[in-house]
Fold this protein.
Amino acid sequence: MGIVERKEREKTEMRDRIVEAATLMFLEDGYEKTSIRNIAEKIEYSPATIYLYFKDKDELFFAIHNIGFQLLLKETEKSHKIKNPLKRLHDIGVTYIEFALNNPEYYDLMFIMRSPMNALKEKHGDEQCWTYGEAVFGTLVSTIQECIDQKLIKSKDATIASMYTWSMVHGLVSLKIRERFKVMDLPEDQIRKMLLQSLDEVINNMKA
Amino acid sequence: MGIVERKEREKTEMRDRIVEAATLMFLEDGYEKTSIRNIAEKIEYSPATIYLYFKDKDELFFAIHNIGFQLLLKETEKSHKIKNPLKRLHDIGVTYIEFALNNPEYYDLMFIMRSPMNALKEKHGDEQCWTYGEAVFGTLVSTIQECIDQKLIKSKDATIASMYTWSMVHGLVSLKIRERFKVMDLPEDQIRKMLLQSLDEVINNMKA
DNA sequence: TTGCTTTACTAAACAGTGTTTAGTAAATTT
DNA sequence: AAATTTACTAAACACTGTTTAGTAAAGCAA
Protein backbone atom coordinates (compact mmCIF):
# COMPACT_ATOMS: atom_id res chain seq x y z
CA MET A 1 0.00 0.00 0.00
CA GLY A 2 1.56 3.24 -1.25
CA ILE A 3 -1.03 5.37 0.47
CA VAL A 4 0.77 5.41 3.82
CA GLU A 5 3.98 6.38 2.02
CA ARG A 6 2.32 9.16 0.10
CA LYS A 7 0.80 10.43 3.35
CA GLU A 8 4.22 10.40 4.98
CA ARG A 9 5.66 12.26 2.01
CA GLU A 10 2.86 14.81 2.14
CA LYS A 11 3.46 15.25 5.86
CA THR A 12 7.15 16.08 5.43
CA GLU A 13 6.38 18.24 2.39
CA MET A 14 3.95 20.28 4.47
CA ARG A 15 6.49 20.55 7.30
CA ASP A 16 9.10 21.77 4.86
CA ARG A 17 6.70 24.33 3.38
CA ILE A 18 6.07 25.74 6.85
CA VAL A 19 9.80 25.92 7.64
CA GLU A 20 10.52 27.50 4.26
CA ALA A 21 7.87 30.18 4.70
CA ALA A 22 8.98 30.82 8.29
CA THR A 23 12.64 31.06 7.24
CA LEU A 24 11.86 33.57 4.50
CA MET A 25 9.84 35.73 6.87
CA PHE A 26 12.45 35.42 9.62
CA LEU A 27 15.33 36.47 7.34
CA GLU A 28 13.37 39.36 5.85
CA ASP A 29 11.38 40.73 8.79
CA GLY A 30 13.10 39.28 11.87
CA TYR A 31 11.96 37.02 14.67
CA GLU A 32 9.39 39.32 16.29
CA LYS A 33 7.40 39.86 13.08
CA THR A 34 7.49 36.18 12.15
CA SER A 35 4.31 35.19 13.96
CA ILE A 36 2.46 31.90 13.67
CA ARG A 37 -0.47 33.84 12.24
CA ASN A 38 1.69 35.52 9.56
CA ILE A 39 3.29 32.23 8.55
CA ALA A 40 -0.13 30.58 8.36
CA GLU A 41 -1.41 33.38 6.14
CA LYS A 42 1.62 33.06 3.84
CA ILE A 43 1.11 29.35 3.26
CA GLU A 44 -2.68 29.84 3.11
CA TYR A 45 -3.56 27.60 6.05
CA SER A 46 -5.05 28.32 9.45
CA PRO A 47 -2.67 29.01 12.39
CA ALA A 48 -3.84 25.84 14.13
CA THR A 49 -2.49 23.72 11.26
CA ILE A 50 1.09 24.69 12.14
CA TYR A 51 0.56 23.05 15.53
CA LEU A 52 -0.12 19.74 13.80
CA TYR A 53 3.48 19.79 12.53
CA PHE A 54 5.29 21.62 15.36
CA LYS A 55 4.75 21.43 19.11
CA ASP A 56 5.22 25.18 19.49
CA LYS A 57 6.98 28.22 18.03
CA ASP A 58 10.28 27.19 19.64
CA GLU A 59 10.25 23.84 17.83
CA LEU A 60 9.57 25.56 14.51
CA PHE A 61 12.47 27.94 15.08
CA PHE A 62 14.67 25.04 16.08
CA ALA A 63 14.14 23.71 12.56
CA ILE A 64 15.34 27.03 11.07
CA HIS A 65 18.22 27.05 13.57
CA ASN A 66 19.23 23.65 12.25
CA ILE A 67 19.33 24.83 8.64
CA GLY A 68 21.63 27.64 9.80
CA PHE A 69 24.02 25.08 11.26
CA GLN A 70 24.04 23.14 8.00
CA LEU A 71 25.01 26.34 6.17
CA LEU A 72 27.78 27.12 8.67
CA LEU A 73 29.07 23.53 8.53
CA LYS A 74 29.26 23.74 4.73
CA GLU A 75 31.28 26.95 5.03
CA THR A 76 33.73 25.61 7.62
CA GLU A 77 34.27 22.42 5.63
CA LYS A 78 36.03 24.53 3.00
CA SER A 79 38.87 25.00 5.51
CA HIS A 80 39.53 21.25 5.59
CA LYS A 81 41.89 21.41 2.65
CA ILE A 82 44.31 23.61 4.61
CA LYS A 83 47.06 21.29 5.93
CA ASN A 84 48.67 23.58 8.53
CA PRO A 85 46.33 23.34 11.55
CA LEU A 86 47.20 26.84 12.80
CA LYS A 87 46.38 28.36 9.41
CA ARG A 88 43.26 26.21 9.31
CA LEU A 89 42.27 27.49 12.76
CA HIS A 90 42.64 31.04 11.51
CA ASP A 91 40.61 30.25 8.41
CA ILE A 92 37.81 28.70 10.47
CA GLY A 93 37.79 31.86 12.58
CA VAL A 94 37.51 34.10 9.53
CA THR A 95 34.74 31.89 8.12
CA TYR A 96 32.87 32.03 11.43
CA ILE A 97 33.11 35.83 11.67
CA GLU A 98 32.07 36.30 8.05
CA PHE A 99 29.17 33.88 8.40
CA ALA A 100 27.94 35.87 11.39
CA LEU A 101 28.30 39.25 9.69
CA ASN A 102 26.72 38.07 6.43
CA ASN A 103 23.88 36.13 8.12
CA PRO A 104 23.20 38.04 11.34
CA GLU A 105 19.63 36.69 11.68
CA TYR A 106 20.77 33.08 11.35
CA TYR A 107 23.66 33.69 13.73
CA ASP A 108 21.39 35.28 16.28
CA LEU A 109 19.04 32.30 16.19
CA MET A 110 21.91 29.80 16.33
CA PHE A 111 23.98 31.32 19.13
CA ILE A 112 22.09 34.08 20.92
CA MET A 113 18.32 33.59 21.02
CA ARG A 114 16.69 31.50 23.74
CA SER A 115 13.97 30.08 21.49
CA PRO A 116 15.72 27.09 19.85
CA MET A 117 17.31 26.02 23.15
CA ASN A 118 13.88 25.75 24.76
CA ALA A 119 12.94 23.25 22.06
CA LEU A 120 16.12 21.29 22.71
CA LYS A 121 15.33 20.92 26.43
CA GLU A 122 12.31 18.64 26.08
CA LYS A 123 13.62 16.33 23.38
CA HIS A 124 17.08 15.34 24.58
CA GLY A 125 17.92 11.87 23.45
CA ASP A 126 16.60 12.58 19.98
CA GLU A 127 19.32 11.80 17.44
CA GLN A 128 20.05 14.20 14.61
CA CYS A 129 19.00 17.29 16.51
CA TRP A 130 22.14 18.93 17.85
CA THR A 131 24.47 17.03 15.52
CA TYR A 132 25.33 19.89 13.17
CA GLY A 133 26.37 22.06 16.10
CA GLU A 134 28.52 19.25 17.47
CA ALA A 135 30.09 18.77 14.04
CA VAL A 136 31.13 22.44 13.79
CA PHE A 137 32.49 22.43 17.34
CA GLY A 138 34.21 19.10 16.71
CA THR A 139 36.09 20.60 13.75
CA LEU A 140 37.39 23.34 16.03
CA VAL A 141 38.48 20.95 18.79
CA SER A 142 40.29 18.56 16.45
CA THR A 143 42.06 21.42 14.65
CA ILE A 144 43.28 22.79 17.98
CA GLN A 145 44.29 19.28 19.06
CA GLU A 146 46.43 19.07 15.91
CA CYS A 147 48.02 22.40 16.82
CA ILE A 148 48.85 21.03 20.28
CA ASP A 149 50.24 17.77 18.86
CA GLN A 150 52.47 19.71 16.48
CA LYS A 151 53.47 22.07 19.33
CA LEU A 152 52.27 25.11 17.37
CA ILE A 153 50.41 26.67 20.30
CA LYS A 154 51.17 27.14 23.97
CA SER A 155 47.95 25.55 25.24
CA LYS A 156 47.92 21.96 26.44
CA ASP A 157 44.19 21.43 26.73
CA ALA A 158 42.22 21.38 23.46
CA THR A 159 38.86 21.72 25.24
CA ILE A 160 39.89 24.88 27.12
CA ALA A 161 41.54 26.39 24.05
CA SER A 162 38.46 25.60 21.94
CA MET A 163 36.27 27.16 24.58
CA TYR A 164 38.05 30.48 24.58
CA THR A 165 38.71 30.74 20.85
CA TRP A 166 35.04 30.07 20.19
CA SER A 167 34.09 32.50 22.97
CA MET A 168 36.34 35.15 21.51
CA VAL A 169 34.87 35.06 18.00
CA HIS A 170 31.37 34.65 19.41
CA GLY A 171 31.95 37.60 21.72
CA LEU A 172 33.15 39.74 18.83
CA VAL A 173 30.25 39.04 16.50
CA SER A 174 27.54 38.91 19.16
CA LEU A 175 28.56 42.29 20.62
CA LYS A 176 28.45 43.58 17.04
CA ILE A 177 25.07 42.01 16.26
CA ARG A 178 23.49 43.18 19.51
CA GLU A 179 24.95 46.66 18.98
CA ARG A 180 27.20 46.87 22.06
CA PHE A 181 30.25 48.16 20.21
CA LYS A 182 28.47 51.51 20.09
CA VAL A 183 30.36 52.42 23.29
CA MET A 184 33.50 52.47 21.19
CA ASP A 185 32.01 55.10 18.88
CA LEU A 186 33.67 53.82 15.69
CA PRO A 187 32.40 53.76 12.08
CA GLU A 188 30.73 50.59 10.83
CA ASP A 189 33.43 49.51 8.36
CA GLN A 190 36.22 49.99 10.92
CA ILE A 191 34.45 47.68 13.40
CA ARG A 192 34.38 45.01 10.69
CA LYS A 193 38.13 45.37 10.13
CA MET A 194 38.85 45.28 13.83
CA LEU A 195 36.97 42.03 14.29
CA LEU A 196 39.31 40.27 11.86
CA GLN A 197 42.31 42.12 13.31
CA SER A 198 41.34 40.86 16.77
CA LEU A 199 41.22 37.29 15.49
CA ASP A 200 44.72 37.71 13.98
CA GLU A 201 46.16 39.01 17.22
CA VAL A 202 44.56 36.38 19.46
CA ILE A 203 45.78 33.52 17.28
CA ASN A 204 49.18 35.14 17.18
CA ASN A 205 49.15 35.30 20.98
CA MET A 206 48.37 31.59 21.10
CA LYS A 207 51.49 30.63 19.14
CA ALA A 208 54.09 28.59 21.00
CA MET B 1 6.93 78.36 45.79
CA GLY B 2 7.83 74.86 47.00
CA ILE B 3 4.92 73.26 45.19
CA VAL B 4 6.77 72.85 41.87
CA GLU B 5 9.68 71.27 43.75
CA ARG B 6 7.43 68.86 45.61
CA LYS B 7 5.81 67.91 42.31
CA GLU B 8 9.20 67.26 40.78
CA ARG B 9 10.18 65.17 43.79
CA GLU B 10 6.95 63.21 43.58
CA LYS B 11 7.55 62.65 39.86
CA THR B 12 11.01 61.13 40.40
CA GLU B 13 9.73 59.16 43.40
CA MET B 14 7.01 57.63 41.26
CA ARG B 15 9.55 56.89 38.50
CA ASP B 16 11.80 55.18 41.00
CA ARG B 17 8.92 53.13 42.40
CA ILE B 18 8.13 51.88 38.90
CA VAL B 19 11.78 50.99 38.21
CA GLU B 20 12.08 49.30 41.61
CA ALA B 21 8.98 47.17 41.05
CA ALA B 22 10.06 46.34 37.51
CA THR B 23 13.58 45.40 38.66
CA LEU B 24 12.25 43.08 41.35
CA MET B 25 9.93 41.35 38.90
CA PHE B 26 12.63 41.16 36.25
CA LEU B 27 15.18 39.59 38.60
CA GLU B 28 12.66 37.11 39.99
CA ASP B 29 10.55 36.16 36.98
CA GLY B 30 12.60 37.26 33.97
CA TYR B 31 11.99 39.70 31.15
CA GLU B 32 9.07 37.94 29.47
CA LYS B 33 6.94 37.77 32.61
CA THR B 34 7.70 41.36 33.56
CA SER B 35 4.83 42.94 31.65
CA ILE B 36 3.63 46.53 31.91
CA ARG B 37 0.34 45.17 33.24
CA ASN B 38 2.05 43.12 35.97
CA ILE B 39 4.23 46.03 37.06
CA ALA B 40 1.17 48.30 37.16
CA GLU B 41 -0.68 45.80 39.32
CA LYS B 42 2.28 45.51 41.71
CA ILE B 43 2.46 49.26 42.32
CA GLU B 44 -1.35 49.47 42.35
CA TYR B 45 -1.71 51.83 39.38
CA SER B 46 -3.20 51.42 35.93
CA PRO B 47 -0.92 50.30 33.07
CA ALA B 48 -1.41 53.64 31.31
CA THR B 49 0.23 55.46 34.25
CA ILE B 50 3.59 53.84 33.47
CA TYR B 51 3.50 55.54 30.07
CA LEU B 52 3.41 58.94 31.82
CA TYR B 53 6.87 58.18 33.20
CA PHE B 54 8.39 56.07 30.42
CA LYS B 55 8.03 56.38 26.65
CA ASP B 56 7.78 52.61 26.25
CA LYS B 57 8.89 49.28 27.72
CA ASP B 58 12.36 49.67 26.23
CA GLU B 59 12.92 52.95 28.05
CA LEU B 60 11.83 51.40 31.33
CA PHE B 61 14.24 48.51 30.84
CA PHE B 62 16.97 50.94 29.93
CA ALA B 63 16.61 52.35 33.44
CA ILE B 64 17.11 48.87 34.94
CA HIS B 65 20.00 48.29 32.53
CA ASN B 66 21.61 51.46 33.89
CA ILE B 67 21.36 50.26 37.49
CA GLY B 68 23.12 47.09 36.39
CA PHE B 69 26.00 49.13 35.00
CA GLN B 70 26.29 51.03 38.28
CA LEU B 71 26.58 47.72 40.11
CA LEU B 72 29.23 46.42 37.71
CA LEU B 73 31.16 49.70 37.89
CA LYS B 74 31.18 49.48 41.69
CA GLU B 75 32.57 45.93 41.46
CA THR B 76 35.28 46.76 38.93
CA GLU B 77 36.38 49.81 40.95
CA LYS B 78 37.62 47.40 43.64
CA SER B 79 40.38 46.39 41.21
CA HIS B 80 41.75 49.96 41.16
CA LYS B 81 43.93 49.34 44.19
CA ILE B 82 45.95 46.71 42.28
CA LYS B 83 49.13 48.46 41.06
CA ASN B 84 50.36 45.92 38.50
CA PRO B 85 48.21 46.58 35.40
CA LEU B 86 48.43 42.99 34.17
CA LYS B 87 47.24 41.66 37.53
CA ARG B 88 44.58 44.37 37.54
CA LEU B 89 43.47 43.29 34.06
CA HIS B 90 43.11 39.74 35.29
CA ASP B 91 41.18 40.91 38.35
CA ILE B 92 38.79 42.96 36.20
CA GLY B 93 38.23 39.85 34.08
CA VAL B 94 37.43 37.71 37.12
CA THR B 95 35.10 40.41 38.46
CA TYR B 96 33.36 40.62 35.08
CA ILE B 97 32.86 36.86 34.84
CA GLU B 98 31.64 36.59 38.42
CA PHE B 99 29.27 39.51 38.00
CA ALA B 100 27.77 37.80 34.95
CA LEU B 101 27.42 34.42 36.65
CA ASN B 102 25.98 35.89 39.87
CA ASN B 103 23.64 38.32 38.10
CA PRO B 104 22.71 36.57 34.85
CA GLU B 105 19.48 38.58 34.41
CA TYR B 106 21.26 41.90 34.79
CA TYR B 107 24.06 40.74 32.50
CA ASP B 108 21.60 39.61 29.88
CA LEU B 109 19.87 42.99 29.89
CA MET B 110 23.16 44.89 29.85
CA PHE B 111 24.98 43.00 27.11
CA ILE B 112 22.66 40.64 25.25
CA MET B 113 19.05 41.85 25.04
CA ARG B 114 17.96 44.20 22.29
CA SER B 115 15.47 46.11 24.46
CA PRO B 116 17.72 48.73 26.17
CA MET B 117 19.58 49.46 22.93
CA ASN B 118 16.30 50.37 21.22
CA ALA B 119 15.77 53.02 23.90
CA LEU B 120 19.29 54.35 23.35
CA LYS B 121 18.69 54.84 19.62
CA GLU B 122 16.15 57.66 19.88
CA LYS B 123 17.81 59.68 22.61
CA HIS B 124 21.42 59.99 21.53
CA GLY B 125 22.87 63.28 22.69
CA ASP B 126 21.32 62.83 26.11
CA GLU B 127 24.06 63.10 28.73
CA GLN B 128 24.27 60.60 31.57
CA CYS B 129 22.68 57.78 29.61
CA TRP B 130 25.50 55.55 28.38
CA THR B 131 28.09 56.97 30.81
CA TYR B 132 28.32 53.99 33.14
CA GLY B 133 29.01 51.67 30.24
CA GLU B 134 31.69 54.01 28.95
CA ALA B 135 33.21 54.17 32.44
CA VAL B 136 33.53 50.38 32.69
CA PHE B 137 34.98 50.12 29.18
CA GLY B 138 37.29 53.05 29.88
CA THR B 139 38.75 51.23 32.88
CA LEU B 140 39.57 48.28 30.64
CA VAL B 141 41.19 50.41 27.91
CA SER B 142 43.35 52.42 30.33
CA THR B 143 44.47 49.28 32.16
CA ILE B 144 45.51 47.69 28.87
CA GLN B 145 47.23 50.93 27.84
CA GLU B 146 49.25 50.74 31.05
CA CYS B 147 50.20 47.16 30.18
CA ILE B 148 51.39 48.34 26.76
CA ASP B 149 53.32 51.27 28.24
CA GLN B 150 55.08 48.96 30.67
CA LYS B 151 55.70 46.44 27.85
CA LEU B 152 53.89 43.70 29.77
CA ILE B 153 51.85 42.51 26.78
CA LYS B 154 52.62 41.89 23.13
CA SER B 155 49.80 44.06 21.78
CA LYS B 156 50.52 47.59 20.58
CA ASP B 157 46.95 48.83 20.17
CA ALA B 158 44.92 49.26 23.36
CA THR B 159 41.61 49.56 21.48
CA ILE B 160 42.08 46.27 19.64
CA ALA B 161 43.31 44.47 22.76
CA SER B 162 40.38 45.85 24.77
CA MET B 163 38.02 44.73 22.05
CA TYR B 164 39.13 41.13 22.11
CA THR B 165 39.61 40.75 25.85
CA TRP B 166 36.12 42.11 26.41
CA SER B 167 34.80 39.90 23.59
CA MET B 168 36.46 36.87 25.11
CA VAL B 169 34.93 37.26 28.57
CA HIS B 170 31.61 38.32 27.06
CA GLY B 171 31.69 35.32 24.77
CA LEU B 172 32.37 32.98 27.66
CA VAL B 173 29.59 34.23 29.92
CA SER B 174 27.03 34.88 27.17
CA LEU B 175 27.43 31.38 25.73
CA LYS B 176 26.97 30.11 29.30
CA ILE B 177 23.91 32.31 30.00
CA ARG B 178 22.25 31.46 26.69
CA GLU B 179 23.01 27.76 27.24
CA ARG B 180 25.26 27.14 24.23
CA PHE B 181 27.95 25.28 26.18
CA LYS B 182 25.56 22.32 26.23
CA VAL B 183 27.34 21.07 23.09
CA MET B 184 30.35 20.41 25.29
CA ASP B 185 28.31 18.13 27.55
CA LEU B 186 30.07 19.06 30.79
CA PRO B 187 28.72 19.38 34.38
CA GLU B 188 27.67 22.84 35.56
CA ASP B 189 30.46 23.39 38.12
CA GLN B 190 33.16 22.37 35.65
CA ILE B 191 31.95 24.96 33.12
CA ARG B 192 32.30 27.60 35.84
CA LYS B 193 35.89 26.55 36.52
CA MET B 194 36.75 26.48 32.85
CA LEU B 195 35.51 30.03 32.32
CA LEU B 196 38.08 31.31 34.82
CA GLN B 197 40.70 28.93 33.47
CA SER B 198 40.12 30.33 29.99
CA LEU B 199 40.64 33.87 31.27
CA ASP B 200 43.94 32.78 32.89
CA GLU B 201 45.21 31.22 29.70
CA VAL B 202 44.21 34.10 27.42
CA ILE B 203 45.89 36.69 29.63
CA ASN B 204 48.93 34.45 29.83
CA ASN B 205 48.97 34.28 26.03
CA MET B 206 48.92 38.08 25.90
CA LYS B 207 52.12 38.42 27.96
CA ALA B 208 55.13 39.91 26.18
C1' DT C 1 -14.36 82.02 47.51
C1' DT C 2 -15.37 81.22 42.69
C1' DG C 3 -14.07 79.90 38.18
C1' DC C 4 -10.56 78.39 35.11
C1' DT C 5 -6.68 75.56 33.98
C1' DT C 6 -3.47 72.18 34.56
C1' DT C 7 -2.05 67.84 36.45
C1' DA C 8 -2.44 62.91 37.54
C1' DC C 9 -4.68 59.27 36.64
C1' DT C 10 -7.69 55.44 34.56
C1' DA C 11 -11.30 52.58 31.82
C1' DA C 12 -11.63 50.87 27.74
C1' DA C 13 -10.30 49.96 23.38
C1' DC C 14 -6.93 48.70 19.50
C1' DA C 15 -4.18 45.60 17.42
C1' DG C 16 -1.58 42.25 17.97
C1' DT C 17 0.60 37.55 20.20
C1' DG C 18 0.97 32.01 21.13
C1' DT C 19 -1.94 28.24 21.89
C1' DT C 20 -6.12 25.06 22.63
C1' DT C 21 -10.61 23.19 21.88
C1' DA C 22 -14.39 21.53 19.56
C1' DG C 23 -16.23 20.52 15.38
C1' DT C 24 -16.30 19.43 10.16
C1' DA C 25 -15.56 17.47 5.76
C1' DA C 26 -12.97 14.45 3.13
C1' DA C 27 -10.13 10.32 2.65
C1' DT C 28 -9.54 5.72 3.84
C1' DT C 29 -10.64 1.28 5.67
C1' DT C 30 -13.82 -2.27 7.02
C1' DA D 1 -22.53 1.46 2.46
C1' DA D 2 -21.08 2.32 7.07
C1' DA D 3 -17.54 3.26 10.28
C1' DT D 4 -13.32 5.21 11.22
C1' DT D 5 -9.42 7.91 10.76
C1' DT D 6 -7.09 11.99 8.97
C1' DA D 7 -6.45 16.87 7.91
C1' DC D 8 -7.96 20.90 8.73
C1' DT D 9 -10.25 25.21 10.71
C1' DA D 10 -13.34 28.76 13.33
C1' DA D 11 -13.46 30.54 17.39
C1' DA D 12 -12.09 31.19 21.80
C1' DC D 13 -8.66 31.83 25.77
C1' DA D 14 -5.43 34.39 27.97
C1' DC D 15 -2.17 37.15 27.28
C1' DT D 16 0.92 41.33 25.35
C1' DG D 17 2.33 46.71 24.47
C1' DT D 18 0.23 50.96 23.60
C1' DT D 19 -3.27 54.85 22.75
C1' DT D 20 -7.34 57.54 23.38
C1' DA D 21 -10.78 59.86 25.61
C1' DG D 22 -12.53 61.17 29.74
C1' DT D 23 -12.53 62.25 34.95
C1' DA D 24 -11.54 63.97 39.39
C1' DA D 25 -8.48 66.51 42.05
C1' DA D 26 -5.01 70.08 42.68
C1' DG D 27 -3.31 74.65 41.88
C1' DC D 28 -3.85 79.29 40.48
C1' DA D 29 -5.92 83.81 39.34
C1' DA D 30 -9.68 87.09 39.89
In short: Chain B has ten helices and no strands. Residues 69 and 133 of chain B are 6 Å apart (CA to CA).
